[in-house]
Amino acid sequence: MKAQKEAGCRLLIVGYESGDPQILKNIKKGATVERARQFTKDTKKLGLTVHGDFILGLPGESRESIRTTINFAKELDVETIQVSLAHAYPGTELYDFAKKNGFIVGTERMVDDGGHQLAQIEYPGLPREHVLEMVHKFYDEYYFRPKAVFRIVKKAVFNNVERKRLYKEAKSFMKLRAQRNRTAKEMRSQASPEPPRPASQEEKPVTAQVAGD
Questions:
Q1: CATH code, residues 9-191
Q2: How far is CA 200 from the centre of its chain?
Q3: Strand ordering across the sheet containing 49-56
Q4: Residues linked to residue 51 through DSSP beta bridges, in sequence order
Q5: By the number of CB atoms within 10 A of the CB, which of 126, 132, 148, 188 ranks highest?
Q6: Is the model's pTM score more than 0.70?
Q7: Is residue 50 a contact partner of residue 12, using CB atoms and an 8 Å limit?
């Protein structure tokens, strides 16, 4: 990396994928959580900016592993992040695995008409609407931390070019945030069964009477 820095490298896009060691093994990542931590420390020492990529919904995902990944991302504290949903592309090992086990629900569409991510895979005990909602929560928890907010404000205050760029990015982010929130709420409402309506005075339950001997 030192040679890259000396050659003019400023930004690295890093696929961390998950903060859960077992999931990294499941997807045959060939990297460990410890290695990711050390790598990130090294980039900061060299002054390299890192954009981190994470994926929710990989094989073995659970509510607990999602929380582990969110906490891991905040611990790494890279400059920017992208959080994606796991998508099973035909012809891939993930597609064969998900198809065989019946984890692909509904249609196999990966994005809606607006180009926004759709949750395509659902595991037992992990509803796809929850995964989509956690993508939304992931971004909020990451970017609305005091440390992250301070970093952004500091750039905007002292650099006019950065201020204009950050303003445009903030508008785009908030627009996508609103869309993600709407989609998550829609999926949640569709997945929630309608609660039973209590019987009114006019609709008293009918009880059967059994004649005694």
A1: 3.30.750.200
A2: 44
A3: 11-17, 49-56, 80-85
A4: 13, 80
A5: 132
A6: yes
A7: yes
